Amino acid sequence: MSVETQYFPDGDNEKRKRMSTGLQINCPHSLRLAIQSAYEFGYHFVVTQITHPNYARELLKGKPPPSIGRTDRILQSLEWSRYIVAELTPTINVDSEIDHVQRKSKALFLQELGFAVHLGVPVVKICLTKRHNGQLGRLVNEKLVHGFNSSFWVTVPMVHPSQYSPICGEDEKEDSWEWWNDFRTYCNYDKHVGVVLELPEVRYIPTKSEVDRWIGEPVRALIVPTSYFIMNTHGKPVLSRLHQELIQRFLSIDVQYIIKTDTEGDLSVYTKYLHFLGKKLYVSDTNLEFIQGCEDFLQNPLQPLTEHLETNIYEVFEKDQIKYTTYQNAIQKALEDVPADVTIPTIMVVGAGRGPLVQAALNVSYILHRKVKVYAVEKNPYAINTLIDRVKHEWSDQVTLINDDMRVYEPPEKADILVSELLGSFGDNELSPECLDGAQRFLKRNGISIPCSYTSYLAPLQSIKIFNEIRNNRPADKTLKTCYETPYVIHLVNYYQIAPAQALFKFEHPNWSDVINNERYKKLRFNCTQTCILTGFVGFFDTVLYKDVTLSIHPETHTHEMVSWFPIVFPLMEPLKVSGGSVIEISFWRVENQDKVWYEWCLESPAKTCIMNPGGRSYSIKKH
Amino acid sequence: MSVETQYFPDGDNEKRKRMSTGLQINCPHSLRLAIQSAYEFGYHFVVTQITHPNYARELLKGKPPPSIGRTDRILQSLEWSRYIVAELTPTINVDSEIDHVQRKSKALFLQELGFAVHLGVPVVKICLTKRHNGQLGRLVNEKLVHGFNSSFWVTVPMVHPSQYSPICGEDEKEDSWEWWNDFRTYCNYDKHVGVVLELPEVRYIPTKSEVDRWIGEPVRALIVPTSYFIMNTHGKPVLSRLHQELIQRFLSIDVQYIIKTDTEGDLSVYTKYLHFLGKKLYVSDTNLEFIQGCEDFLQNPLQPLTEHLETNIYEVFEKDQIKYTTYQNAIQKALEDVPADVTIPTIMVVGAGRGPLVQAALNVSYILHRKVKVYAVEKNPYAINTLIDRVKHEWSDQVTLINDDMRVYEPPEKADILVSELLGSFGDNELSPECLDGAQRFLKRNGISIPCSYTSYLAPLQSIKIFNEIRNNRPADKTLKTCYETPYVIHLVNYYQIAPAQALFKFEHPNWSDVINNERYKKLRFNCTQTCILTGFVGFFDTVLYKDVTLSIHPETHTHEMVSWFPIVFPLMEPLKVSGGSVIEISFWRVENQDKVWYEWCLESPAKTCIMNPGGRSYSIKKH
């Protein structure tokens, strides 16, 4: 039982999400007994006020009476710090326009917050009840910059009642996302400030795009009133299908659940039901298991030309059977197209690694009953060590090993098929174009390159989580600017893609042009349909391996169950609020010189920014 | 089974040290089978060469033959990274004076090290076999500064055989500590470089002070040859009492054990025996349990005058029953000395916190059947909140609460006994002198202060661990110099106290002098009996509470089972090698101005350093 831990430890093989559930308890007579009872009902934490209304406090009249509320000794500090979400008195109104109410509220707020710090609770919960919360934002932000170690949970309704009120005019409608957005902007998007959403009634569940935008926010918990439960045929309380679907949307970002009730009795049914829901809604997918635990984690793109890959990287690659089966299909179709007068077709695998594509080529040879000669070109001597072993024990003399860089190696013969897997998350970002332009020297003029082509895509992105990850994980030897001028490969989870992705750059192989130019420039325009926060751009790619055999990580065409690539994110320096209906425009460059290739980017609309990463000063892909 | 994890997870209540044991395996035919077998015997990891002597490698003759050794695919990357300590070929001699041997060795060394990196093993083990290892040090250091993520284990004998060889003259005797010390100095004391010690035969076990010095080193493992085991009366192999005592010395710093054997058969007996030894030698001490897990962890000293303590700090304090029982004894002796004509003696507890000393005073009143009036002065409003509750439910009107700073409060009457617990790890370092000088205003002229006096102590310290903790945990907003000019409170474990502690500063209360001066200066001289590395000074204190009732954290007089205070460490900027027989001299100041108190210190001998923390620029204790 704890409000902090989110995951089961390794070794728990049960395939489900952990549904961490808290119970809202209003002014229990004995907090200790209330926690004990919540624990027995199966709850993981308790949401409650730390001051009791019995302790009326009038702080502004003379010397304050020192008694604040419950004594800290009713729980052990470990219990305070694990199980208690401290809800501040909701009637405190530091944004009141009535001066004495404002002053009294401020004194009460600071006293309660100080007491929460004294108790060491992990979370302080506050509610937004109106549009303007400037005073509250200032007080919370002041606390944050002085090194507040706990978290603030800011509660708003997922949909403001005015949205569906028959008596509210269009100009009276409130958007609770705007309340939240204003508030966390005051607090400089601090990672200690999360949002808690009150679930709406079924009939007021918002549109998909509104929910999408919430998924791009640091949602910490959903509040579920017990009145939303309906009785199933077995007489057990369950949520309606639409509520279940709504909850499923939030499963990926691991929110917690707060059960709110006015009734007494057996409250275990609700936490049991959520536990059951976690099992039911969790989509078990063995292929996705080994990428769990790296959600929203920043990875620097590989530099395979200058650094040898290590054995664990090869192993992760090789686990993606979908990718290599697809490659094998492409090699098969290509081999079928090699003219019959070529007695023994030559297949060159460039960047062979530990040999998965060599194996795919040999599989095709076996399937088609057609003898082939395979060259495996690999510059990493430690991967060659493995290939030697595989030649000796698995492949025999069908395969010739070459321990050299594909850009300088001089082959004894030319190839019919050139196979490579040099693509990064953004297609060309691991210098596949430069490598294959070099390697095609040993491809016959009518030879086939697998892949034949690849295209990069971009889309505007809202992810406060990623903005904070970049800001908070600066290595000691880098400036913050350097960190924002660098793309990251990320298993994106807590994000909102603001508009559909659009094609950016395309490369084709072989490229027999007299002059090959791999520099590129393009401007893309996206329509922003609802107000949101732009924090950067997310990149994808797709590739035609051969004919109709393709691989893709573009969200709309993503190859099923393929996990080899995560999206790439190009950040902006600062989050930018973009109004619904406006246009987001970006300029994007691929630039190169003798030593390196790099990207530059800048926002053109709705605001112009300076060009990021000029001259590749913060990030580049080295050629040597 | 893993070479990395050292502790049982929380919740394992078995009272013993985990004895993590590895098996040295020389050139197994099948590494996979060897690991499987070691696992079944109960070992946690395996020490073995990653290249096989069958793969003769002649790197300098023309193009290197690419095959290095075993293929990486015989184990999964997770297995390489958890279970394998890679021992480099011991015949590699990069420090050979024969040029071609040196060049060939360097090529082999770099290839093996590169292969170890490729495999992702957690540890690379190398052996020092002679005095001068400059080339090896340079190669390892070059790897370290390029971001080596694994560890190096450097193996030396705990005692060099020349020390007890009858044919070695005094000038031919080698000190293996010097070998190790030279090597890690080349590597700038990098935390990734640890030492592995070969256990000596019983008759060559070194002196206590030599072992003490090893305890101050980053010892990662002890090598135990199976030939050291003797058969007990049950026919089971055990270690002799002297070997057991030697191992017990290393228990506190959590070394691992490597079993080295030439024999075949059931090797589980050795790991079972070490497991048993862990249970047998572990000194269970319930009072020490709650300080486990903070070994060698840097804590910043409290600033109780400017920051309110939080509930978990009070709770930790209150758990130390030894301390409060001793306080109660002192209060009892003091109350017995209050003249009988004082009808109701007044006891003022200043800095009452959540009331443990108030409770002690009331206990004494009950024991002596003498009514007392207790004032509890406390400035923290959240602690006062607790005290209000205790007055209401436990103490009633015997206790008067005062929510004010003891330095400004004006009491209605003067006290017979003034009780406080304002002492830090260095005695005066939480400004007890300044606070009690202020608070004695409300002590009767013949009144008693508990404590009556306290004294700080200093001793020279070797702890590479702490030097590295300071260097590697620099907060983003501080310079490295600031970090070295700050004292830290530390539960010291991996350290060597170079000489006995000496008294530094003493303070007495009440202090009725006309002019009170709490500034101090003293020079201390310590004799260094054996060559070692000075990294700073460690501070302690003792206090006379009243008459013969004392508390102490001085190592020679430490109050049994008291855990409220850990030692304090004053670092130096750089480790300094000090020869056996030389003198270590330090100048130490306590300085104050209107706003703050601070310490300055500098080494006078064997080398002069600049004065650390001038003007309190990096660390001071604030008065307001």
Description:
Two copies of one chain form a homodimer. The first copy, chain A, is built from 16 helices and 26 strands. In chain A, the strands form five sheets. Chain A has an eight-stranded parallel beta barrel with strand order 1-2-3-4-5-6-7-10, surrounded by four helices. In chain A, strands 16, 17, 18, 19, 21, 22 and 23 form a seven-stranded antiparallel sheet that branches. In chain A, strands 13-12-11-14-15 form a five-stranded parallel sheet, covered by helices on one side. The first copy, chain A, folds into three domains: 264 residues, TIM Barrel, CATH 3.20.20; 111 residues, Vaccinia Virus protein VP39 (Rossmann fold, 3-Layer(aba) Sandwich), CATH 3.40.50; 169 residues, Distorted Sandwich (Hnrnp arginine n-methyltransferase1). About 2% of the residues of chain A have low confidence. Helices cover 28% and strands 25% of the residues of chain A. The first copy, chain A, is an alpha/beta fold. In chain A, helix 13 links the parallel strand 12 and strand 13. The interface between A and B is large, with 40 and 40 residues. Chains A, B: It comes from Zophobas morio. Chains A, B: This is Protein arginine N-methyltransferase.
Q: Can you tell me the CATH topology of the largest domain in chain A?
A: TIM Barrel
Look at the structure and give the CATH class of the largest domain in chain A. Answer: Alpha Beta
What is the structural class of chain A? alpha/beta
- What are the low-pLDDT stretches of chain A, counting only 5+ consecutive residues below 50? 5-16
Termini of chain A, distance in Å?
Answer: 53 Å
CATH superfamily of the largest domain in chain A: Divalent-metal-dependent TIM barrel enzymes
Overall geometry of chain A: elongated
Beta-strand content estimate of chain A: 25-35%
GO cellular component, one term (chains A, B): nucleus
Keywords (chains A, B): Methyltransferase, S-adenosyl-L-methionine, Transferase
Pfam families (chains A, B): PRMT5, PRMT5_C, PRMT5_TIM
GO molecular function (chains A, B): protein-arginine N-methyltransferase activity
